Amino acid sequence: MKTDWSGYHQDKDYLRSEIWSLLKQQAASIGNPFGHIPNFVGADLAAERLATLPIWQQAKTIKCNPDSAQIPVRMRALQDGKRLYMAVPRLTDDRCFVELTAEDLQRQNISIAESAIARKALACGKLVSFAEMEPIDLVIVGCVAVTRNGGRTGKGAGFADLELAMLEEFGLIKTDTPIVTTVHPLQIVEDSRLPMQAHDWALNWIVTAEEVIETNTIYPRPKGLNWDNIRPEQLEQIPILRKLRARLDNEFLC
Fold first, then answer.
1. Which residues constitute the domain of residue 37?
2. N or C: which end of the chain has fewer CB within 10 A?
3. What is the pLDDT of residues 83-118, one digit of tens each?
């Protein structure tokens, strides 16, 4: 099946279509999975399991993707008193993260359950620039397919990799900041099925409703933004990328 982001990597396109079809056939998705980070049966249990891990319990500040599959993760982060950063969908704002805390929500008389839904988070959270953000202790990303050695792919748009590269560029994540996902077991594939590229960020942990997988990944972590890998339409559609590019060009000219 073709999506807005098909055509960049044929093997990954094929794998995504296979996973979306499988989730639908097995009635393991909530809603239509095609073209999305799929919401899945057991997402709430996976979030509960994630919350038992030391990497979660020690984290004060968490970055999470805005997809429905991770609503239970965002909800749990706020319930546990963590500062939550959620990416603005498609990074369409200069201030491309929303900051949420339980205290702010309480002041606004907004429930944590409501604010965990992305569109409500955008309405009630505080838009922040990279300069206004606190260092991040734990990153949660949405995935379509993953491998036990840390390989991952999203829906093909490249937003997660861009977000992580920019956060690294601004010193908000470090080389040892754990990167985690919650998925359905059907989304886990053989290592050989998922080719990783130089700009792809690997997973350190995979959590399902049934198990926790520490990947001990050996994939090297990218170092900030690789401008050679940024596609023209990404530069056109993502304001913060254009600003960073202009700043870099000015530094070069100086």
1. 10-214
2. C
3. 999 988 777 777 889 999 999 999 999 999 999 999
